Amino acid sequence: MTSPDYSKQGYKEIVTSLENSVLSITINRAKYRNTFSIELFDDLVHIFDLADRDDSVRAIILTAEPTAPAFCSGADISGGWDVLWKEESEKEGEHAHRDTGGMLSLVIYRCRKITIAAVNGNAAGVGMTALHLPFDFRFVWAGAKLTFPFFAAGSILKVRLLTNHNLTLNLFPSNVTYLLPRLIGHSRATSLLLTGMTVSPDSPYIQSLYHQILPTRSEVYPAAKAFATELVANSSQMAVAYTKGLLQHPGNSIEENHLLDSRVIKLLASSVDGAEGAKSFKERRVPKFTGVLSKDSSPWYPWWHRVDVRHLKTKL
Description:
Helices cover 38% and strands 12% of the residues. It contains eleven helices and nine strands. A six-stranded mixed beta sheet has the order 1-2-3-4-6-9, with helices on both faces. The chain has a three-stranded mixed beta sheet with strand order 5-7-8, with helices on one face. Strand 2, helix 1 and strand 3 form a beta-alpha-beta unit. Helix 1 packs parallel to helix 3. The longest helix has 16 residues.
């Protein structure tokens, strides 16, 4: 497929660049302390969906300008709570609401490409959830202040201290109770969520979440970019997608997982990338993988049942 021109997508809250198969996305709301807006949500959902289907993209990095007040300081509800609710779901009732942070988390989590969060500033609320947890890798500035201010008493005060911005309130779990315990363990996740404590990346509560902790803000994105560039140069697009699938959707038993692993091995070994891998091994050179998801993915993938989270209207 022909790669889309990301500069012509009409994005309002992000800046993009595509280089050597690495798509970089920069949050561009410094004036508003990089708060999470509906426009930012729309831009990110669109670009992650587009990049997932674009064969020329092999890795995606999300970051922010290192001079901005924060990587993301939470949700912007300066216009009131009504910005969170859609008229259609309001007619149906509370069961019809779909959390925007959670919707974005699903889009990023399901992305078949390598995803990297380059957290080069303070992060709170949705900045710690949808813009943090569903990524494959996380690079972070050592001096960042990090908090999940959802359930603890005094959370509004904590966010004000973190951002110096009293119009930000974070009530967006964004699948955090599913993802965080699986990433860092149930005990540490409980401590972070129920206390709402503010921690630094080297805290024993959260340190294991990060692939690399960098001493300065300006070092975070370059480190993530170098890492992504090396990964895409030496990995198969098909192998990445299948491996992510196995990590996120393993079998219910070791026997079932063995069957899934075996089929993935058969598919990859029989593919153009499998042939190139064997040839490059024999010739003692770096492989040049050319397989792409749009042409070479098996109809068996995804092998798991995908839940449709859309709410179907029942009222006119």
